[in-house]
Amino acid sequence: MKQSLLVLWSALLIGTPLAAGAAAPCYTMDAAGSSLGFVAEQTGAKFEGSFRKFDAKISFKPADLAASRFDVMVDPASADTGEEQRDTTLRGPDFFDVAHFKTAHFVTTSFRKTGDTGYEATGKLTLRDVTRDVTIAFRFTTRKEGAVDASYLTGSANLKRLDFGVGRGEYADTETIGNDVEIKFNLRLLPTPLSPDKRIPTPPVPPQTK
Amino acid sequence: MHIRNSADRYGAVAQFLHWLIVALLIVQVSTALLADDMPLGLAKLAMLARHKSFGMTILALALIRVLWRLANPAPPLPATLKPYERVLARVTHVLLYALLFAMPLSGWVMSAAHNYPVSWFHLFTWPSPVAPDKQLAENLEDVHETLAYVLAATVTLHIIAALKHHFVLKDDTLKRMLPFRGT
Protein backbone atom coordinates (compact mmCIF):
# COMPACT_ATOMS: atom_id res chain seq x y z
CA MET A 1 0.00 0.00 0.00
CA LYS A 2 2.73 2.38 1.05
CA GLN A 3 4.82 1.53 -1.99
CA SER A 4 2.04 2.05 -4.55
CA LEU A 5 1.17 5.39 -2.94
CA LEU A 6 4.81 6.39 -3.27
CA VAL A 7 4.84 5.37 -6.92
CA LEU A 8 1.64 7.36 -7.51
CA TRP A 9 3.05 10.50 -5.90
CA SER A 10 6.37 10.11 -7.72
CA ALA A 11 4.51 9.93 -11.00
CA LEU A 12 2.57 13.06 -10.10
CA LEU A 13 5.74 14.81 -8.92
CA ILE A 14 7.44 14.15 -12.23
CA GLY A 15 4.35 14.35 -14.40
CA THR A 16 2.90 17.67 -13.19
CA PRO A 17 5.86 19.92 -14.00
CA LEU A 18 6.24 18.10 -17.31
CA ALA A 19 2.59 18.81 -18.10
CA ALA A 20 2.96 22.45 -17.01
CA GLY A 21 6.07 22.79 -19.19
CA ALA A 22 4.16 21.67 -22.27
CA ALA A 23 2.22 24.97 -22.32
CA ALA A 24 4.08 28.12 -23.44
CA PRO A 25 5.56 30.14 -20.56
CA CYS A 26 3.34 33.08 -19.58
CA TYR A 27 4.66 36.59 -19.07
CA THR A 28 3.30 39.66 -17.36
CA MET A 29 4.20 43.02 -18.82
CA ASP A 30 6.14 45.50 -16.71
CA ALA A 31 4.47 48.77 -17.68
CA ALA A 32 7.30 50.95 -16.35
CA GLY A 33 9.87 49.20 -18.53
CA SER A 34 7.77 48.94 -21.68
CA SER A 35 7.02 51.26 -24.56
CA LEU A 36 4.58 51.24 -27.45
CA GLY A 37 4.99 53.98 -30.01
CA PHE A 38 4.25 54.99 -33.55
CA VAL A 39 6.01 56.89 -36.32
CA ALA A 40 3.85 58.88 -38.70
CA GLU A 41 4.50 61.50 -41.35
CA GLN A 42 3.03 64.98 -41.28
CA THR A 43 3.63 67.62 -44.00
CA GLY A 44 6.58 65.61 -45.28
CA ALA A 45 8.34 65.07 -41.95
CA LYS A 46 8.26 61.99 -39.72
CA PHE A 47 7.43 62.41 -36.05
CA GLU A 48 7.05 59.97 -33.17
CA GLY A 49 4.35 59.50 -30.61
CA SER A 50 3.49 56.85 -28.06
CA PHE A 51 0.64 55.25 -26.16
CA ARG A 52 0.93 55.77 -22.42
CA LYS A 53 -1.58 53.08 -21.42
CA PHE A 54 -1.47 49.56 -22.75
CA ASP A 55 -1.10 46.03 -21.46
CA ALA A 56 0.09 42.79 -23.00
CA LYS A 57 -0.49 39.19 -22.00
CA ILE A 58 2.28 37.20 -23.58
CA SER A 59 2.78 33.44 -23.94
CA PHE A 60 5.85 32.60 -25.93
CA LYS A 61 7.79 29.42 -26.55
CA PRO A 62 10.34 29.39 -29.39
CA ALA A 63 10.30 25.57 -29.48
CA ASP A 64 6.52 25.47 -29.82
CA LEU A 65 5.36 28.56 -31.69
CA ALA A 66 1.89 27.14 -32.17
CA ALA A 67 1.34 27.34 -28.41
CA SER A 68 2.40 30.99 -28.30
CA ARG A 69 -0.04 33.89 -28.06
CA PHE A 70 0.14 37.68 -27.71
CA ASP A 71 -2.88 39.59 -26.47
CA VAL A 72 -2.42 43.36 -26.36
CA MET A 73 -4.94 45.96 -25.20
CA VAL A 74 -4.24 49.63 -25.91
CA ASP A 75 -6.01 52.74 -24.64
CA PRO A 76 -6.10 55.02 -27.72
CA ALA A 77 -6.97 58.01 -25.53
CA SER A 78 -3.47 57.71 -24.08
CA ALA A 79 -1.84 58.71 -27.40
CA ASP A 80 0.85 61.31 -26.73
CA THR A 81 2.66 63.19 -29.48
CA GLY A 82 4.02 65.96 -27.28
CA GLU A 83 1.68 68.66 -28.53
CA GLU A 84 -1.76 69.41 -27.10
CA GLN A 85 -3.68 70.35 -30.26
CA ARG A 86 -2.52 67.30 -32.17
CA ASP A 87 -3.23 64.97 -29.23
CA THR A 88 -6.73 66.41 -28.84
CA THR A 89 -7.35 65.91 -32.57
CA LEU A 90 -6.13 62.31 -32.31
CA ARG A 91 -8.65 61.58 -29.57
CA GLY A 92 -11.42 63.19 -31.61
CA PRO A 93 -14.00 61.69 -34.00
CA ASP A 94 -11.76 62.05 -37.06
CA PHE A 95 -9.01 59.83 -35.67
CA PHE A 96 -9.29 57.43 -32.74
CA ASP A 97 -12.74 58.64 -31.67
CA VAL A 98 -12.14 57.59 -28.08
CA ALA A 99 -15.66 58.63 -27.09
CA HIS A 100 -16.95 55.62 -29.03
CA PHE A 101 -13.97 53.28 -29.15
CA LYS A 102 -12.35 52.84 -25.79
CA THR A 103 -9.74 50.21 -26.68
CA ALA A 104 -7.62 48.91 -29.51
CA HIS A 105 -6.89 45.19 -29.42
CA PHE A 106 -4.30 42.94 -31.03
CA VAL A 107 -4.46 39.13 -30.76
CA THR A 108 -2.06 36.83 -32.58
CA THR A 109 -3.24 33.96 -34.74
CA SER A 110 0.03 32.49 -36.02
CA PHE A 111 3.79 32.64 -35.55
CA ARG A 112 6.80 31.78 -37.66
CA LYS A 113 10.55 31.99 -37.36
CA THR A 114 12.45 34.31 -39.68
CA GLY A 115 16.22 33.92 -39.79
CA ASP A 116 18.38 33.22 -36.76
CA THR A 117 16.89 35.41 -34.07
CA GLY A 118 13.78 36.92 -35.61
CA TYR A 119 10.14 36.00 -35.60
CA GLU A 120 6.97 37.16 -37.25
CA ALA A 121 3.46 36.95 -35.90
CA THR A 122 0.23 37.65 -37.68
CA GLY A 123 -2.80 38.66 -35.70
CA LYS A 124 -6.07 40.54 -35.72
CA LEU A 125 -5.85 44.22 -34.90
CA THR A 126 -9.06 45.98 -33.96
CA LEU A 127 -8.78 49.76 -34.17
CA ARG A 128 -11.94 51.89 -34.09
CA ASP A 129 -14.52 49.50 -35.53
CA VAL A 130 -12.27 47.76 -38.03
CA THR A 131 -10.53 44.40 -37.54
CA ARG A 132 -7.79 43.45 -39.96
CA ASP A 133 -4.75 41.22 -40.13
CA VAL A 134 -1.49 42.86 -39.13
CA THR A 135 1.93 41.21 -39.09
CA ILE A 136 4.55 42.11 -36.54
CA ALA A 137 8.27 41.34 -36.74
CA PHE A 138 10.00 40.86 -33.41
CA ARG A 139 12.87 39.53 -31.33
CA PHE A 140 12.53 37.88 -27.95
CA THR A 141 15.50 37.97 -25.61
CA THR A 142 15.88 37.07 -21.94
CA ARG A 143 18.55 38.22 -19.53
CA LYS A 144 19.22 38.20 -15.84
CA GLU A 145 18.54 41.53 -14.15
CA GLY A 146 19.48 41.14 -10.50
CA ALA A 147 17.21 38.46 -9.08
CA VAL A 148 14.79 38.22 -12.01
CA ASP A 149 14.85 36.86 -15.53
CA ALA A 150 13.60 39.76 -17.64
CA SER A 151 12.49 39.16 -21.20
CA TYR A 152 12.27 41.78 -23.91
CA LEU A 153 9.82 41.58 -26.76
CA THR A 154 11.01 44.15 -29.29
CA GLY A 155 9.76 44.76 -32.78
CA SER A 156 7.63 46.67 -35.20
CA ALA A 157 4.72 46.54 -37.56
CA ASN A 158 3.68 48.62 -40.55
CA LEU A 159 0.12 49.52 -41.25
CA LYS A 160 -1.93 51.99 -43.23
CA ARG A 161 -4.06 54.28 -41.11
CA LEU A 162 -6.81 54.56 -43.71
CA ASP A 163 -7.29 50.76 -43.54
CA PHE A 164 -8.71 51.36 -40.08
CA GLY A 165 -10.54 54.58 -40.87
CA VAL A 166 -8.08 56.65 -38.86
CA GLY A 167 -8.15 60.15 -40.30
CA ARG A 168 -11.54 61.04 -41.82
CA GLY A 169 -12.96 63.97 -43.72
CA GLU A 170 -10.16 66.36 -44.69
CA TYR A 171 -7.69 64.21 -42.73
CA ALA A 172 -8.07 61.38 -45.23
CA ASP A 173 -5.67 63.30 -47.48
CA THR A 174 -2.42 61.36 -47.41
CA GLU A 175 -0.33 64.18 -48.89
CA THR A 176 -0.44 66.06 -45.62
CA ILE A 177 -0.72 63.14 -43.22
CA GLY A 178 0.98 60.01 -44.51
CA ASN A 179 -0.98 56.78 -44.80
CA ASP A 180 1.94 54.61 -43.65
CA VAL A 181 2.38 54.32 -39.91
CA GLU A 182 5.10 52.29 -38.20
CA ILE A 183 4.31 50.80 -34.81
CA LYS A 184 7.30 50.20 -32.56
CA PHE A 185 7.29 48.28 -29.31
CA ASN A 186 9.69 47.24 -26.60
CA LEU A 187 7.97 45.26 -23.88
CA ARG A 188 9.70 44.25 -20.67
CA LEU A 189 8.22 40.95 -19.51
CA LEU A 190 8.51 39.07 -16.27
CA PRO A 191 7.52 35.43 -15.81
CA THR A 192 3.96 35.11 -14.57
CA PRO A 193 4.03 33.10 -11.33
CA LEU A 194 2.07 29.81 -11.44
CA SER A 195 -1.38 30.05 -9.79
CA PRO A 196 -1.79 28.07 -6.55
CA ASP A 197 -3.84 25.20 -8.06
CA LYS A 198 -1.08 24.55 -10.58
CA ARG A 199 1.63 24.19 -7.95
CA ILE A 200 3.24 20.81 -7.49
CA PRO A 201 1.11 19.05 -4.83
CA THR A 202 2.87 17.92 -1.65
CA PRO A 203 2.34 14.22 -1.00
CA PRO A 204 0.25 13.36 2.09
CA VAL A 205 2.12 11.74 4.94
CA PRO A 206 1.58 7.97 4.54
CA PRO A 207 -0.36 6.50 7.48
CA GLN A 208 1.97 5.02 10.12
CA THR A 209 1.63 1.29 10.44
CA LYS A 210 2.05 0.10 13.95
CA MET B 1 26.83 95.01 -63.99
CA HIS B 2 29.59 93.71 -61.70
CA ILE B 3 29.27 90.46 -59.79
CA ARG B 4 31.13 91.72 -56.76
CA ASN B 5 30.64 94.90 -54.77
CA SER B 6 32.60 97.96 -55.83
CA ALA B 7 33.53 101.17 -54.06
CA ASP B 8 30.35 102.91 -55.12
CA ARG B 9 27.71 100.21 -55.54
CA TYR B 10 26.64 96.68 -54.66
CA GLY B 11 27.41 93.88 -57.09
CA ALA B 12 24.93 91.53 -58.74
CA VAL B 13 25.20 88.79 -56.10
CA ALA B 14 24.59 91.14 -53.18
CA GLN B 15 21.65 92.75 -54.95
CA PHE B 16 20.13 89.42 -55.89
CA LEU B 17 20.40 88.10 -52.33
CA HIS B 18 18.96 91.33 -50.92
CA TRP B 19 15.83 91.43 -53.10
CA LEU B 20 15.27 87.67 -53.00
CA ILE B 21 15.20 87.83 -49.21
CA VAL B 22 12.86 90.85 -49.36
CA ALA B 23 10.46 88.76 -51.47
CA LEU B 24 10.76 85.77 -49.12
CA LEU B 25 10.12 87.94 -46.07
CA ILE B 26 6.89 89.14 -47.69
CA VAL B 27 5.96 85.47 -48.23
CA GLN B 28 6.78 84.74 -44.59
CA VAL B 29 4.63 87.52 -43.19
CA SER B 30 1.76 86.51 -45.51
CA THR B 31 1.85 82.80 -44.65
CA ALA B 32 2.13 83.57 -40.94
CA LEU B 33 -0.83 85.98 -40.94
CA LEU B 34 -2.92 83.64 -43.10
CA ALA B 35 -2.17 80.60 -40.89
CA ASP B 36 -2.97 82.61 -37.77
CA ASP B 37 -6.46 83.27 -39.10
CA MET B 38 -7.17 79.65 -40.08
CA PRO B 39 -9.05 77.20 -37.89
CA LEU B 40 -7.25 74.08 -36.67
CA GLY B 41 -7.08 71.68 -39.57
CA LEU B 42 -5.22 70.40 -42.58
CA ALA B 43 -5.12 73.73 -44.44
CA LYS B 44 -3.52 75.46 -41.46
CA LEU B 45 -0.98 72.63 -41.12
CA ALA B 46 -0.09 72.93 -44.80
CA MET B 47 0.22 76.74 -44.63
CA LEU B 48 2.52 76.53 -41.62
CA ALA B 49 4.59 73.84 -43.34
CA ARG B 50 5.07 76.23 -46.27
CA HIS B 51 6.03 79.00 -43.86
CA LYS B 52 8.66 76.71 -42.34
CA SER B 53 10.07 75.62 -45.71
CA PHE B 54 10.47 79.24 -46.82
CA GLY B 55 11.88 80.10 -43.41
CA MET B 56 14.62 77.50 -43.68
CA THR B 57 15.38 78.83 -47.16
CA ILE B 58 15.90 82.30 -45.67
CA LEU B 59 18.20 80.79 -43.04
CA ALA B 60 20.35 79.21 -45.74
CA LEU B 61 20.37 82.45 -47.77
CA ALA B 62 21.28 84.47 -44.67
CA LEU B 63 24.33 82.29 -44.20
CA ILE B 64 25.32 82.76 -47.85
CA ARG B 65 24.78 86.51 -47.51
CA VAL B 66 27.04 86.81 -44.49
CA LEU B 67 29.76 84.72 -46.12
CA TRP B 68 29.49 86.75 -49.33
CA ARG B 69 29.66 90.02 -47.39
CA LEU B 70 32.78 88.81 -45.57
CA ALA B 71 34.32 87.88 -48.90
CA ASN B 72 33.72 91.28 -50.45
CA PRO B 73 33.09 94.35 -48.32
CA ALA B 74 30.07 96.55 -48.90
CA PRO B 75 30.49 100.02 -50.39
CA PRO B 76 31.26 102.52 -47.62
CA LEU B 77 28.42 104.56 -46.11
CA PRO B 78 27.91 107.96 -47.80
CA ALA B 79 30.43 110.53 -46.58
CA THR B 80 27.61 112.99 -45.92
CA LEU B 81 26.26 110.98 -42.96
CA LYS B 82 26.51 112.55 -39.51
CA PRO B 83 28.13 110.34 -36.80
CA TYR B 84 24.80 109.37 -35.18
CA GLU B 85 23.45 108.45 -38.62
CA ARG B 86 26.46 106.20 -39.23
CA VAL B 87 25.78 104.45 -35.92
CA LEU B 88 22.08 104.10 -36.71
CA ALA B 89 22.84 102.69 -40.16
CA ARG B 90 25.34 100.17 -38.76
CA VAL B 91 23.00 99.12 -35.95
CA THR B 92 20.07 98.71 -38.36
CA HIS B 93 22.07 96.57 -40.76
CA VAL B 94 23.61 94.41 -38.05
CA LEU B 95 20.17 93.96 -36.49
CA LEU B 96 18.71 92.93 -39.84
CA TYR B 97 21.43 90.32 -40.34
CA ALA B 98 20.96 89.05 -36.78
CA LEU B 99 17.19 88.78 -37.25
CA LEU B 100 17.60 86.89 -40.53
CA PHE B 101 19.20 84.18 -38.38
CA ALA B 102 17.26 84.59 -35.12
CA MET B 103 13.82 84.35 -36.71
CA PRO B 104 14.24 81.07 -38.60
CA LEU B 105 16.36 79.59 -35.82
CA SER B 106 13.74 80.36 -33.17
CA GLY B 107 11.05 78.98 -35.48
CA TRP B 108 13.02 75.80 -36.20
CA VAL B 109 13.71 75.11 -32.51
CA MET B 110 10.10 75.93 -31.60
CA SER B 111 8.79 73.48 -34.19
CA ALA B 112 11.12 70.76 -32.89
CA ALA B 113 10.06 71.49 -29.31
CA HIS B 114 6.43 71.06 -30.43
CA ASN B 115 7.46 67.70 -31.94
CA TYR B 116 6.67 68.97 -35.45
CA PRO B 117 9.89 68.21 -37.33
CA VAL B 118 10.46 70.60 -40.25
CA SER B 119 10.34 69.34 -43.82
CA TRP B 120 11.80 71.33 -46.72
CA PHE B 121 9.00 71.38 -49.27
CA HIS B 122 8.38 67.61 -48.69
CA LEU B 123 11.86 66.85 -50.10
CA PHE B 124 13.76 66.12 -46.91
CA THR B 125 13.46 66.66 -43.17
CA TRP B 126 15.75 69.01 -41.24
CA PRO B 127 17.20 67.38 -38.11
CA SER B 128 15.48 68.52 -34.92
CA PRO B 129 17.78 70.71 -32.81
CA VAL B 130 15.97 69.81 -29.57
CA ALA B 131 13.86 66.99 -28.14
CA PRO B 132 10.12 67.65 -27.68
CA ASP B 133 9.66 70.06 -24.78
CA LYS B 134 6.33 71.74 -24.13
CA GLN B 135 7.70 74.53 -21.92
CA LEU B 136 10.43 75.41 -24.40
CA ALA B 137 7.90 75.42 -27.23
CA GLU B 138 5.69 77.87 -25.34
CA ASN B 139 8.60 80.18 -24.56
CA LEU B 140 9.79 80.14 -28.16
CA GLU B 141 6.30 81.05 -29.41
CA ASP B 142 6.71 84.34 -27.54
CA VAL B 143 10.29 84.79 -28.76
CA HIS B 144 9.41 84.15 -32.40
CA GLU B 145 6.48 86.55 -32.25
CA THR B 146 8.45 89.29 -30.49
CA LEU B 147 11.31 88.98 -32.95
CA ALA B 148 8.80 89.35 -35.77
CA TYR B 149 7.72 92.74 -34.39
CA VAL B 150 11.35 93.81 -33.96
CA LEU B 151 12.02 92.79 -37.56
CA ALA B 152 8.99 94.72 -38.77
CA ALA B 153 10.16 97.85 -36.92
CA THR B 154 13.74 97.51 -38.18
CA VAL B 155 12.65 96.92 -41.76
CA THR B 156 10.38 99.97 -41.56
CA LEU B 157 13.27 102.12 -40.37
CA HIS B 158 15.47 100.68 -43.12
CA ILE B 159 12.89 101.49 -45.82
CA ILE B 160 12.25 105.00 -44.49
CA ALA B 161 15.99 105.70 -44.46
CA ALA B 162 16.41 104.41 -48.04
CA LEU B 163 13.50 106.52 -49.27
CA LYS B 164 14.80 109.59 -47.42
CA HIS B 165 18.18 109.24 -49.12
CA HIS B 166 16.55 108.79 -52.48
CA PHE B 167 13.76 111.40 -52.48
CA VAL B 168 14.86 113.94 -49.90
CA LEU B 169 18.65 113.88 -49.96
CA LYS B 170 18.65 112.77 -53.58
CA ASP B 171 21.87 110.76 -53.23
CA ASP B 172 22.92 107.35 -54.60
CA THR B 173 22.23 105.25 -51.49
CA LEU B 174 19.17 103.44 -52.76
CA LYS B 175 20.43 103.33 -56.36
CA ARG B 176 23.47 101.33 -55.18
CA MET B 177 21.18 98.41 -54.37
CA LEU B 178 19.02 98.70 -57.51
CA PRO B 179 19.95 96.67 -60.58
CA PHE B 180 18.84 99.10 -63.27
CA ARG B 181 19.87 102.50 -61.98
CA GLY B 182 23.20 104.10 -61.32
CA THR B 183 26.66 104.05 -62.89
Which labels suit this protein?
heterodimer, A: 210 residues, mainly beta, Lipocalin, 8-stranded antiparallel β-barrel, 45% strand, elongated, B: 183 residues, mainly alpha, Fumarate Reductase Cytochrome B subunit, two-stranded antiparallel sheet, 67% helix
Describe the structure.
Chain A is mainly beta. Chain A has a single domain, classed as Lipocalin, CATH 2.40.128. Helices cover 14% and strands 45% of the residues of chain A. Chain A contains two helices and eleven strands. In chain A, strands 1-4-5-7-8-9-10-11 form an eight-stranded antiparallel β-barrel. The radius of gyration of chain A is 23 Å and the shape is elongated. In chain B, 67% of the residues lie in helices and 2% in strands. Chain B has one domain (12-177): Fumarate Reductase Cytochrome B subunit. Chain B has helices spanning 12-37, 42-71, 83-113, 134-168; strands at 119-120, 124-125. In chain B, α1 runs antiparallel to α2, α2 packs across α3 (83-113) and α3 runs antiparallel to α4 (134-168). A two-stranded antiparallel ribbon of chain B has the order 1-2. Chain B is mostly helical. In chain B, β1 and β2 form a beta hairpin. Chain B is built from four helices and two strands; from the N terminus they run αααββα. Classes of the chains: A mainly beta (210), B mainly alpha (183). The A-B interface holds A 42-49, 81-85, 89, 170-171, 173, 176-177 and B 40-43, 45-46, 48-49, 114-123, 125, 132, 134, 137.
